[in-house]
Specification:
- This protein is of the alpha+beta class.
- Helices cover 31% and strands 34% of the residues.
- It has helices spanning 11-16, 19-39, 89-98; strands at residues 2-9, 42-47, 55-60, 63-68, 77-85, 108-113.
- The strands form two sheets. Strands 2-5-1-6 form a four-stranded antiparallel sheet. Strands 3-4 form a two-stranded antiparallel sheet.
- The protein is globular.
- It starts with a strand and ends in a 7-residue tail after the last strand.
- The model has no long low-confidence stretch (mean pLDDT 90).
């Protein structure tokens, strides 16, 4: 079954970390990717730009409107995800615990089962 390991990022938490700890996060993500590729559980991953680079599109009365930035004000935002194909929810949670963000106070990794996917 496929699971989405959702990375919710709080830039204030990350900015407060010492530089070496910030670099260790990147190295930890690379180690995690190497591990799940070697085990055959890797499907794909995406890292997203900061919310300030985003746009929100709404359609009202048939007319589209584009607004810069995130739709909601929040300290945390979707920073990216890993899509894994594993035998169980328990294994997905084991993998989520290996992601460096899970060990940082104020961050976390959400594990969500994929209900439907097309084109994968």
């Amino acid at each position: 079954m496929k699971y989405l390991l959702v990375l919710n990022v709080n830039p204030d938490v990350l900015a407060a970390l010492p530089e070496e700890e910030q670099q260790a996060i990147g190295a930890g993500h690379q180690k995690f990717m190497d591990t799940i590729k070697a085990s055959g559980e890797f499907h794909s991953t995406v890292a997203l730009q900061q919310p300030a680079q985003s746009a929100v599109v709404t359609v009202r009365g048939g007319l589209p409107a584009v607004t810069d930035g995130p739709f909601v004000e929040s300290k945390e935002f979707l920073g990216g995800y890993y899509l894994v194909d594993v035998a169980s929810r328990e294994r997905a949670c084991e993998l989520a615990a290996m992601i460096p963000d899970a060990a940082i106070e104020g961050l976390g990794v959400e594990v969500r089962g994929v209900e439907f996917a097309d084109g994968l």
